[in-house]
Structure formats: structure tokens, C-alpha cells
Amino acid sequence: MKSWKLAGAFALATMAGAATGQSAPQDTSGLRKVGAEVLFWSQEKRDANFPHMEKIFPGHVVKAGGKVRALPAGKPLPFSDAELDAFIAGQNIAGLIVLQDGKIRLERYARGYGREGRWTSFSVAKSFTSTLVGAAIKDGYIKSVDEPVTKYIPELAGSGYDGVTIAQLLTMTSGVKWNEDYTDAKSDVARMFLEPVPAGEDPTVYYMKKLPRETAPGSKWVYKTGETNLIGVLVMRATKKPLADYLSEEVWRPYGMEQDAFWMIDPSGHEVSGCCLSVSLRDYARMGQLALEGGKGVVPANWFAESTRPHADIGVPGRGYGYQWWTYPEGRFGAQGIFGQTIRVDPKSKTVIAVSAAAEKASDRDYGLARTAFLDKLFAAAAAK
Fold first, then answer.
1. H or E element that contains 108
2. Which of these, 33, 92, 152, 164, is most buried using a 10 Å CB contact count?
3. How does DSSP classify residue 106?
């Protein structure tokens, strides 16, 4: 299987190399070194750094409001403690929570993590960015996902993105050629933030506009972290607001997230929308609950129904890709990031599971299969009430 499961990691690594952030260090060589090592941190460093990325990388704060959406205690989930402990240990889980009907049926922490902390998202952030597109449509900043990307990012005119719609960006079916191979130093995802950018140009747009067309728009799915970064640029252009501020206004405050979040920034000082949010476990679960409930008042009425259905075939039986959400059998959907970060939702049983982890490898097929099998057991336990 291709290495698309590594989504966001090298975006994080390359972003660190040139990021200036609010403190704007004169020499970024130290940050570059740290960023390049993210994929290869020791277990000790993952445990230490994943809950404290703001100490290493520059970023913006997503402010929470004063009113917190309650997550009351529900009936404890009937599940074997021994099996649960084995899963937490075997998958290097730091936090695991199960909501059903908006109530907490299971909540566990490990690896020195706790309810008051935040944990990095990696590519789970993509689903948050998608939600901001829905919010911008609801607010009238964007008319429709059928609009051309070039309407909001005119610098892409004459590039491989001519004729590409917002929907095709969201589903990663633009037809633009892209290499997301993290073992190749010359891949697009590795080079995206490393090339010099002329003053005044957005680094994502500057790189993406040089990419050639590979197939007709809408005809082929290819995982592209760079395109989620383009979505972030598009939302910023449409709303004229930083993504952290807009996420605070549209989701964090009105929905009642419990804690501030942290969002890393790219060399231009803009949030890296393809990854790099740090969020508390309960707030990850609230995001899944928001999607499950349909996001009334946050996004248009049908936004999440459309976002979480399969639009693109990813070549894995029973699975697909929506608007920056993965789709699974049984009508389930979710957000996924490397090193085990997960939000998984089962609409049938009205259950949300969120996982924060520090897996030994960024991406591992056996690890992913074991995680899904265990989550399926949790869903079954919840469905049995």
C-alpha cells in the first residue's frame, strides 16, 4: 500500500525548516533539524513532544469560549479491562474516549497524558479544515463547492488547477500530479516548504501552481497534503481571517470546546491546514460529535452528510474518501493521522471514539488493522448498550 497514511508528517517536518512564526527566529536551522527528525523521534521523544508541540514549533492559538459543552457520564461500557489494557499498551495509546449519545461511556489515559493536556493531530486536522469550508459556505464567504479554485486563488490560473473545483480539492481528485513519498527527498511533500519563495507570495500556492496536470479533474484520487494546505489558503482568502481565529469563531466557541487548541504555522505565518493541530482528547471527541449531529448552526444542513459519504475510490475494499473524511464499512466515517491519531464515528449506534497515540511507526498496516478491529469491538459493545 502506498505511503499516503504518512499524510501530514513531512508537511510538519518541512514546515518546521522555514517557519518563522510569531517569534521569528533569525536562524531556522535548529527548527529544520527538529522538524526533519519528527518521523524518527525515539519513543521517549514522542511521549514528551506530542503533547507539547507548541514548545517546539511556532503557531497560533484557537481560543475556546466560556461555555463548555458538557459530556456527562453515561453507563460504563461493558468491556474486558484486560483486553482494554492490552490494546492501550500494544498500540502506545495515550488517550481513548468513547461517547454514545453525547455521554462518556469510557475514558482512559496513559503515557503521562491526562484530561487537561493537548495532543498533536497530524492529519486529523484535515477534517477540521474541511469543516471550515462548510462554515464559510454557511456564512456566505464561499457560494458552493462547485466553484473553481481559481476564483479564490487567482494565482493558480494557467496552472494544473485550471478548471478544478473546490469539491475536487476536498476529495483530492484534482488530477494534478503529486508525489507524497516520504522516503523520497525529491517528493513534492518533502520539497513543498523548502524552496525559496518570492516576497509576498504564499509558499503553498507558489509551489502548487508549478505542478503539472496528470489526469482530468475528478477522474483519479491521489492523497495530497499540499491540496489540504490549498484549502486552508482558500478559506483564509475567502474569509479574510486566520484559520485559528475562524475555527474559534465557528466551532470552538459556539460548540463549546473545553480547551484552547494550538495550530502550527507555515513560513508565511499561516496555519498548516493539512496537519498540526494540538487538541485535548475530549475536544477531539466533541469534533466527532459535531459531525455526527450534523453541525447545526456551524455548517449548512447537509454539509456533514455530504462530507462523510464516499466520493472517491481509494483502492481499498469498503473504504473511500469524502470531503477530507475517510469512509468505512457500516456507514462509519472518521479522521486519521499518523502515529495512531483517530476520530471514528458510527452513526448507527451514535457512537464517537477518539484516540491519541504515540505509535512506534508513523504508519504500519498491521497496527492500523489491529486498531480498526479493536474499534469495531468498542462499537459493537456500545451498540449492545
1. strand 103-109
2. 164
3. E
Closest CA to 73 of 282, 280, 253, 292: 282
- Asked whether the beta carbons of 204 and 266 are under 8 A apart, the reply is yes
Q: Is the pTM value of this prediction over 0.85?
A: yes
- Answer whether residue 208 shows pLDDT above 70: yes
Q: Which three cell numbers stand for residue 264?
A: 502550527
Helix intervals (H) in 19-165: 29-36, 43-49, 81-90, 125-138
Cell representation of residue 275: 496537519
How much of the chain is in helix, strand and coil states, percent to nearest 5? Answer: 40, 15, 45
DSSP helix/strand/coil, 263: strand
Q: How far apart are CA 129 and CA 134, in angstroms?
A: 9
Q: Which residue has the cell 491540496?
A: 227
Task: Assess contact for 367 and 339: CB atoms under 8 A.
Answer: no
- Give the chain's mean pLDDT: 90
Is residue 47 a contact partner of residue 54, using CB atoms and an 8 Å limit? no
Cα torsion angle, 280, 22, 247, 198, sign? negative
Residue 34: HSE in the Cβ half-sphere, 13 Å Cα cutoff: 18
**How many residues belong to the chain?**
385
Top-ranked range on mean pLDDT: pick from 22-31, 262-271, 338-347: 338-347
